[in-house]
Structures are given as structure tokens and as C-alpha cells.
Specification:
This protein is mainly alpha-helical and 722 residues long. It has helices at 5-67, 71-96, 104-128, 135-151, 156-163, 169-183, 202-216, 237-249, 253-281, 283-295, 309-316, 318-334, 342-359, 361-381, 385-407, 421-440, 444-458, 462-477, 479-491, 503-521, 537-546, 548-560, 564-590, 602-614, 632-637, 646-649, 656-667, 671-680, 692-696, and strands spanning 189-192, 195-198, 415-416, 524-525, 598-601, 620-622, 640-641, 685-689, 702-708, 711-716. It contains 29 helices and 10 strands. The termini are far apart.
Length: 722
């Protein structure tokens, strides 16, 4: 039946309306999709800078909630890191060395680390010259000028957006996570009834005391925990850095050290490890390398097998963190040698390697000669022989300055040169470990096998015995890292020296080689054989575990090309290993604190805190446990003490007179002589039991100031009534 014109028109209108509705629907859907894509794109572009803000806020929140540090103090700390680290480092890196980092984040992190190394030395030198008052105004003014300079650029929003690339953002979260993880149990005391347990490692007490002394004046007027020494031959620049941050943050020495410096060192070390690897291995491998260095625990209940000893070491050794920062920063500059700027990177690497003498001297013993050889090889390839002389002269000049500085110290170390003595110590230590295992009744077959190996090695002639002991000790101690290094060498291309080595690979290998030589030839402390060379373990662990990042990336890439069955099996094994490591990591970081240093009575604790609250900054404290007590009084009072831990300092200097004097004072001597003893060591506050004054007849020059339980604080009256 034929359609009428009206019906056709009606049908056409209906169809046109339907098409129009569908078109509008599709248009609305496309608009929404485009809007969502725009939001996603903007979120990705700003994810890096947003992560920077979020991680900074997270650190502020953590320190405020966990330790009660005011948000204002942490904000001022961030300002200090910028003004005293980033800005000086940027000026040195950009305008003196003319180095151009690959990304803005690398520029910011390398500037921060470079400033962290140079600024404390500049400030300390100015203070020695009596010009320290000018430093902070100049530093803060330079920081403001730098901000204004950035603000003059029209593309400020774009600069902020590009500051952290999205793929770099995980590094910031990793640094925050590690800072929180390893700072979680930094409690100072645990109070249980009438007893107070002192928890920080004794090294932390040493550094807290040094920061407190720096707070009283720079350079320090005396060694705060030993009255007769005015200067200590020690790597104290990490404490100077902490005091610089403390002054800007407005905190006392103890809070600044425990609740700012210790958490921040993990974030800084994470950044340094990332920088040391990123140009050679790429972003993902560098982040994984930082995870392995600071997050791989292994089996934490074993003293040797399958563990990352570096984590335990870093917990109590603050200068070691700065030493590793310097090492990885040197590696970062070494990785730039492939793209030009050879003279600049060799010079700054040479300078930093010797600056380690002020930050972690033990590391410099291995790193500085390795860098010297590296400079010679890299520059000789490019026929820049004159510049070799410049780099070596810079190292020699700084080394001479440090030796002059150390030689003027009252409080030194008695070192002796006895090759292989440290290896003998390790061999003995391994024997003790085997006896402990045998006594436990477990692993009897491996223990018997190892004991037989030891017996056959011990009966070898000396010319064979010592090298064999050395090889076995190195394999036993670094077995996991050696396996990683072999894999990196064979499968990842790391360290291939022909036809031409990459500069970073060459430096890694040279540092490891000099560490190995150091275990044989480094001087040892006369009384503490392990003291100098064993610290170099940290360098070896850090470099070998950092290589785990590239190795894991290589394994992942190779799994992608495997059959599903083989790839699935390997993936399950890797996941199981990392889950197990996560469990051990949580147990190590959040588990019970076993590093108990000293237990004191509640009365003595109250007395020491009273001295902290009321004594003048230059007070000198004397407590009965001066011979074997750790730096408890110095840490809790933030004041100088006559002497603490005298049995240990006796290995460095002659403490016989002060020990004899103080023994006589507490045992009871003629009052006039007792008063002379207090005058001799400038003692202002004496801690003793409540009956001490009456029993010793010292009432003419001691006045009870405070009491708690059976313990009291007595104030010393100087001759002449002062």
C-alpha cells in the first residue's frame, strides 16, 4: 500500500528525532569521557608534586603524633633543609661545577645531599674564625632570593608540575616509609615501677652529648663526657649538621637528634642510594636498589646467615648513614662521566671522598684511594693528565688538613698496623659462633663439616693459612651479596671491563677491592681490634645490596619471556621470599626493644631530670656510676659530666688520675681534698644517696638541692662562696 506524503513526513520526523537523540547521547558520553580523561591526565601530571607535599605532611604528622614534636618545629626543619642544604648545594652544583642533573628531582636531591656535606664545614670554619653569627642571616637571605628568583619565571606552575615526575613519586613514599619504619622504636626510656630502662644505644648517647655541647658553643669547649679533654679526634660533622637543624627548628639537643636527625637520615640515605643507581640502571632499578639496601632484612634471627647486617649497624651508627650518603653521591657524579663534564665530576668526587674523614673516617680509608685510582683511569683515557694532578692534589690537601686537625686533639685513638690481625679476629669470632651452634644441638651435620674445614685450615702453613682464612671469611660474611654481584656481572652487564668499563661500574669494583684490602691492611685499635676495619662492612653491604635492584629488574624482564609454567614457579618463589622478608622486617622494626643499655632507679632518674630542668647550660654533673655507666647522665641532663664510661675511655687516654680522684671522693676523703677534686673538674652538681652528705662530712661545700626516693642532687659551692 502506498505511503501518503503525510505519513512519510511523520516517519521522517520521528526517525530524525531518534537520530538526534542518539547523537546527543553519544556527544554527552564523549564529553564526559573527555572530562574524565582531562581529570586523570591532570592528576597524573600533578601526582609527583602532590606526592612531595603529601610525604612532607606525612613526616610532620608522624613526628607530631609519635614523638610530640610540634608541627611548627618540623616545618622549620624543612625550611632548614632547603636553606642549608638545597640552596648551597644548588649554587655549588650549578654555578661552580656547571653540572646539569637529568631531572629536576635529581637536581633537588643531589643539591640537598651536596649542601648537607659542605654547609656544616663552612659553618664550623666560620665559627672557628669567630664569624659564625653572619652565617644564618646570609643562608636564609640566599634561600629567600632563590625563591624569588624562581617566582620571576612565568612558568612557575609548570616548574612545580615538572619538579617530580610521576614515575619518580614512589621514591618519596619509600623515603617516608623507611623513615617511619626505622624511627618507630626510638624511645629514650621505659619506666616500670621503681626502675627506669635506658634504651638508646651508647653511640646515640655519645652523639646526643656532642650535639648538646655544640648547642653551648661552636666549636665545642670540651668533650662533654670526659672533663679533661677539650677536643676529640672524631668524625663529628654529622653532629654539627644536627645542631644546625636544631637551631632553626628551635628544639633542644636531645629532641633534635632523636626525633629529627635520626628519622631524616633514612630519607636522605634512600635518596642517595637512588641517585647512585638511577643514571646507570634506570628509575625502577634505582628505587628497588634503595628498597633492598634499607628494607631487605633476610632472616633476622641469624647473626650471619642470610641477613643484611647493615640495618642493625645503621640503627646505632649515625655517622655511617652520612658516610653512605657521601659514597652514593660520589657514585652519582661518577655516572655523569659518560656524558661529559669529566673534569667537574672527578674533582667533586675526589673532594667528597676525603670529606668523608669528617663524616665517617673509616669509610674514607677505602673510598678515597678507590676514587683516586678511578680518577687516574678515567682521566688518562681522555688524556687529561694535568687534571689528574689537580684531583690528587685536592685529596692530598684535604687529607693534610684533617691530619693536622686530628693531631691537635686531646682525645685520640691508639692505632697499630698489624696486617691480617682483623682476619684473625674474624676467624676467632667464627669459632665462637660454631661452638654456640654446637651447644644448641641443631644443624649438627653442617656444624661438624664447618669444624672440619676450620681444623684443616688451622694446620696449613702460614703462607697459605692467612689467604685461605681471608677468602672463607669474606664468602661467609657476604655470601648473599657475592651471589648478587656474580649475577649482576654475568647477566646484567655490570662491571664488564672490556672493551671499556662504564665509569660507575669501575668505581663500584674499585671501592669493593679497596674494602677487601682494608680488611687485611687497615690499622686496628690497640684494644678494640674490630673498631676500624669492621665498619667497612657497611660499605660492602650497601654496594652489594644496592645491586639487588638491577638484578630484580633483570629477573622480571626475563620472566616475561619465559613459559607460563617456569615464569609462574619463579614468580611464586620471589613473592614468597619478599613476603617472608616483610614479616621479618615488621618484626625487626616494630618488635620488642632488646638494645637495653642501662637500668637505673627511679630516684636517680628524677634527679637527673631535675638537673636538666634547673641547672645552667655550663653545669658539670658527677654521678656514682662514672666508671661503668654509659652516657646516661649526659643524655638525660644535656649537660657535661665529669666522666662517664671511664673503663672505655681508658683505651684512648690516661684516665687514671680522674678515676682515682672520683673514687676517693665517693669513698670518703678529707673534706678539703674532696672540695679540691670538685674544683679541679668544675663539678657543679653531685648525685649521691641522701645520707651521703652527713656520712662524708662534705656539708661545708655541698648543699642538697633536690631529692627523690633514696637519691639526692647536691649543688657544689665553689671556694669563695660562689
Amino acid at each position: 500500500m502506498a505511503m501518503t506524503l503525510g505519513q512519510a513526513a511523520a516517519l521522517d520526523g520521528a526517525c530524525g528525532g531518534a537520530v538526534d537523540v542518539r547523537s546527543r547521547a553519544r556527544g554527552g558520553s564523549c564529553a564526559r569521557s573527555a572530562y574524565i580523561d582531562t581529570i586523570v591526565s591532570a592528576a597524573r601530571e600533578w601526582s609527583g608534586f602532590g606526592s612531595l607535599l603529601a610525604c612532607t605532611s606525612g613526616l610532620i604528622t608522624f613526628l607530631a603524633v609519635r614523638y610530640g614534636v610540634s608541627a611548627l618545629a618540623v616545618v622549620r626543619t624543612v625550611v632548614a633543609l632547603y636553606a642549608l642544604g638545597v640552596v648551597p648545594g644548588h649554587l655549588l652544583q650549578r654555578y661552580v661545577l656547571d653540572l646539569r642533573p637529568a631531572t629536576p628531582l635529581q637536581g633537588m636531591l643531589s643539591s640537598l645531599l651536596l649542601g648537607t656535606f659542605f654547609t656544616p664545614l663552612i659553618w664550623y670554619t666560620l665559627c672557628v674564625l669567630g664569624l659564625g653569627m653572619a652565617f644564618y642571616p646570609l643562608a636564609l637571605t640566599a634561600a629567600v632570593i632563590a625563591l624569588l628568583n624562581c617566582g620571576r619565571h612565568h612558568d612557575l606552575v609548570g616548574r612545580l608540575k615538572r619538579l617530580v615526575a610521576p614515575e619518580e613519586a614512589p621514591l618519596l613514599w619509600l623515603g617516608l616509609g623507611l623513615a617511619v619504619l626505622w624511627s618507630w622504636k626510638l624511645d629514650l626510656v621505659a619506666i616500670a615501677g621503681d626502675q627506669v630502662v635506658i634504651l638508646p644505644h651508647n653511640d646515640h648517647m655519645v652523639h646526643t652529648s656532642m650535639v648538646a655541647e655544640l648547642a653551648r658553643g661552636v666549636p665545642p669547649a670540651t668533650v662533654p663526657f670526659i672533663a679533661f679533654a677539650n677536643k676529640w679526634a672524631y668524625h663529628q660533622m654529622p653532629n654539627v649538621w644536627c645542631d644546625m637543624i636544631r637551631r632553626v627548628a628551635g628544639l633542644d639537643a636531645r629532641d633534635a637528634y632523636f626525633h629529627l636527625a635520626l628519622p631524616l637520615r633514612y630519607a636522605l640515605l634512600t635518596s642517595a642510594c637512588y641517585l647512585g643507581l638511577v643514571r646507570r640502571f634506570g628509575n625502577r632499578a634505582a628505587i628497588l636498589g634503595a628498597v633492598c639496601v634499607l628494607g631487605f632484612v633476610g632472616y633476622s634471627q641469624s647473626q650471619y646467615i642470610g641477613t643484611n647486617w647493615l640495618l642493625t649497624y645503621l640503627y646505632w651508627n649515625t655517622p655511617a648513614a652520612f658516610g653512605l650518603m657521601g659514597l652514593f653521591l660520589i657514585c652519582y657524579y661518577a655516572s655523569m662521566a659518560e656524558v661529559g663534564r669529566t673534569r667537574q665530576v672527578t674533582l667533586i668526587a675526589s673532594i667528597l671522598s676525603v670529606l668523608l674523614l669528617w663524616y665517617k673516617a673509616n669509610f674514607a680509608l677505602a673510598v678515597a684511594p678507590a676514587v683516586a685510582v678511578w680518577c687516574v683511569i678515567v682521566l688518562a683515557r681522555r688524556r687529561r693528565f694535568a687534571w689528574i694532578g689537580v684531583c690528587l692534589a685536592a685529596q692530598a690537601a684535604l687529607f693534610a688538613v684533617r691530619m693536622i686537625d686530628v693531631s691537635s686533639a686531646d682525645f685520640g685513638a691508639k692505632l697499630v698496623f698489624e696486617p691480617f690481625r682483623f682476619i684473625g679476629f674474624l676467624w676467632w669470632e667464627g669459632g665462637v659462633w660454631l661452638r654456640d651452634l654446637a651447644a644448641s644441638g641443631v644443624l649438627s651435620v653442617p656444624v661438624e663439616l664447618l669444624s672440619k674445614i676450620r681444623y684443616h685450615v688451622d694446620v696449613l702453613p702460614g703462607v697459605l693459612r692467612w689467604p685461605t682464612m681471608f677468602v672463607l671469611c669474606m664468602v661467609f660474611l657476604f655470601h648473599m651479596g657475592i651471589a648478587v654481584a656474580i649475577y649482576a656481572r654475568v647477566r646484567c652487564g655490570f662491571g664488564r671491563l672490556r672493551p671499556q668499563a662504564r665509569s660507575l661500574d669501575l668505581l663500584f669494583l674499585l671501592v669493593l677491592a679497596f674494602c677487601g684490602l682494608g680488611f687485611i691492611f687497615f690499622p686496628v685499635h690497640d684494644a678494640l681490634v674490630w673498631n676500624v676495619p669492621k665498619h667497612v662492612f657497611a660499605v660492602v653491604y650497601a654496594l652489594l645490596f644496592a645491586l639487588m635492584g638491577p638484578v630484580l629488574c633483570d629477573v622480571y624482564e626475563r620472566l616475561r619471556g619465559q613459559t607460563p609454567l617456569r615464569g609462574g614457579v619463579v614468580a611464586v618463589v620471589l613473592v614468597a621470599l619478599f613476603v617472608a622478608n616483610g614479616y621479618e622486617l615488621a618484626r625487626k622494626a616494630f618488635g620488642p626493644v632488646s638494645d637495653v643499655q642501662e637500668v637505673i632507679g627511679r630516684g636517680e632518674y628524677d634527679c637527673l631530670r631535675h638537673i636538666e630542668a634547673t641547672a645552667p647550660p655550663d653545669a658539670v654533673v658527677l654521678r656514682p656510676e662514672f666508671e661503668n655507666g654509659l652516657m646516661t647522665a649526659a643524655m638525660l641532663t644535656q649537660r657535661r659530666v665529669a666522666i662517664e664510661w671511664a673503663c672505655v675511655w681508658a683505651t684512648c687516654c690516661d684516665t687514671s688520675r680522674i678515676v682515682a680522684d672520683l673514687r676517693g671522693f665517693y669513698a670518703g676523703t678529707e673534706p678539703g681534698g674532696a672540695h679540691d677534686i670538685l674544683q679541679r673538674y668544675d663539678v657543679t652538681h653531685v648525685v649521691a644517696d641522701r645520707a651521703f652528705l652527713k656520712r662524708m662530712r662534705y656539708g661545708a661545700f655541698l648543699r642538697e638541692d633536690f631529692r627523690s626516693g633514696q637519691t639526692a642532687v647536691f649543688t657544689a659551692i665553689r671556694k669563695g662562696g660562689q
